[in-house]
Specification:
Elements (H helix, E strand, L loop, with lengths): L1 H14 L1 H4 L3 E4 L2 E4 L2 H17 L6 H14 L7 E3 L1 H12 L1 E4 L2 E3 L9 E4 L4 H4 L7 E5 L2 E2 L5 H8 L6 E8 L4 E8 L1 E4 L3 E6 L2 E9 L6 H12 L6 E5 L8 H8 L6 E8 L4 E6 L8 E5 L6 H12 L3 E4 L7 E7 L5 E10 L15 E2 L19 H13 L3
Helix pairs in contact: 1-3, 5-7, 8-9, 9-10
Length: about 400
């Protein structure tokens, strides 16, 4: 019996080699096992589940679970293991095209699914989902038991399929259930137009930073014939961030050539990201709020440090760390926090945020006028107009 058990352990050790390698450190050419007792415990649990657990389980299921557990042990809400489906959905989001319902989630609490806003003309917007709604269930899955990346993956799917959401709406103190039909979503990351009532002011809103956002901004500026305007209002409110390189491309239009951000890894190695020679050199005002995060803070931080624009609103979210996606086998990946970023003045804004130059808050029940259709502006946008008007001598 002991011999058979030993053989099973050896067989399982081969299966879980990828997990085992996580607790092995290579130093000075030698392999040092950090803790034999912990390894033995892991192998024993693996064996018990395979031999004694009532329900059938596959090796893939156990390896996936163990891998996810190792990453979750970091207690970093931004680091996560992604199975093949979740990994595919993440890259769809980065590319800005996917089948889904059109909800952008808040980054304030990665463990709580709060709707930041629905995208225009998407199933979520048509169903009346509102900013601040808390998603409690996705079909039959309780969202308190899963990570945000997993929740996003559950809401995504083939166009034409349905998903049911249970939401808590604080303003009405009740749960709301909606069934949505997924559509092909193309995230409109950049919108540019003349500001209503102010034909000499260009209004540019960036909702997030996807792979094509830099190119989308270039197209928007070209379509606007931007040089015919006297100044620009750049709206980064409710922008949760996204792709680093696109943030650098965007910043290149609003600061002169030079450092946009410094990426610093755990060993102190620095990768400096430089602005291209695209600087517009026009009077600029930038709108930010507590939901402006990550890549949006890279752009707004660079503009503030370089003094090329005036930040208006409230303090930004304060996510000054960088995640890297490492591909694994079978279409899976692990997303890990690997570095922090600093502003051009080498300020670390993580968990601190960026203070605006002009502090303007919205009222408790006051909605922001993102991409306004008329001149009924919220106080932040109204202040932006006043500041820009002074800059251009109106």
């Amino acid at each position: 019996m002991a011999e058979q058990s030993g053989r099973r352990v050896l067989k399982y050790l081969l299966t879980i080699f990828v997990i085992f390698s996580v607790i092995v450190t290579v130093a000075v050419g030698a392999v040092v096992v950090a803790n034999f007792n912990h390894l033995g415990r892991f192998v024993r649990v693996f064996e018990l589940i395979r031999d004694e657990y009532l329900e059938p389980t596959s090796t893939d299921q156990l390896v996936d679970g163990a891998t996810r557990g190792i990453v979750s042990a970091l207690k970093d809400p931004y680091s996560t293991y992604l199975d093949a489906q979740e990994n595919e959905k993440l890259f769809e989001q980065i590319e800005g095209k996917f089948g889904g319902v059109g909800i952008i989630l808040s980054v304030k609490d990665p463990k709580k699914l709060v709707v930041m806003r629905p995208l225009k003309s998407t199933p979520a917007a048509k169903a009346g989902i509102q900013p601040g709604d808390v998603i409690l269930k996705i079909d039959n899955t309780d969202t308190s038991t899963i990570e945000q990346d997993k929740a996003v993956a559950l809401m995504r799917g083939e166009p034409g399929t349905k998903v049911t959401l249970v939401l808590y709406r604080e303003s009405e103190n009740r749960d709301v259930t909606v069934t949505l039909t997924r559509e092909k979503i193309t995230v409109p990351t950049v919108e540019g137009k003349a500001l209503p009532g102010h034909p000499d002011m260009a209004y540019i809103e960036i909702s997030q930073f996807a792979m094509e956002t830099g190119n989308d901004l270039a197209e928007a500026l070209k379509s606007l014939d931007i040089k015919k305007y006297k100044g620009i209002i750049l709206d980064l409110r409710y922008n949760p961030g996204g792709e680093l390189e696109s943030a650098v491309q965007v910043a290149s239009y609003f600061i002169p050539p030079g450092p946009v951000t410094y990426i610093v890894d755990k060993n102190g190695n620095v990768d400096t990201k430089y602005a291209a020679d695209n600087y517009l050199n026009m009077p600029l005002v930038v709108l930010v709020n507590g939901e402006s995060a990550s890549a949006a803070e890279i752009v707004s931080g660079a503009i503030k440090d370089k003094g090329t624009g005036t930040l208006i609103g409230v303090k930004t979210f304060g996510k000054g760390i960088v995640q890297t996606i490492f591909p694994l086998d079978s279409g899976t990946s692990v997303k890990l926090t690997t570095a922090k970023y600093l502003t051009p003045n080498k300020l670390d804004i993580h968990k601190k945020g960026i203070e605006p130059d002009v502090q303007v808050e919205l009222g408790k029940d006051q909605d922001p006028t993102i991409s306004p259709m008329n001149t009924q502006f919220d106080p932040q946008l109204r202040t932006a107009v006043e500041v820009l008007a002074r800059k251009i001598g109106k």
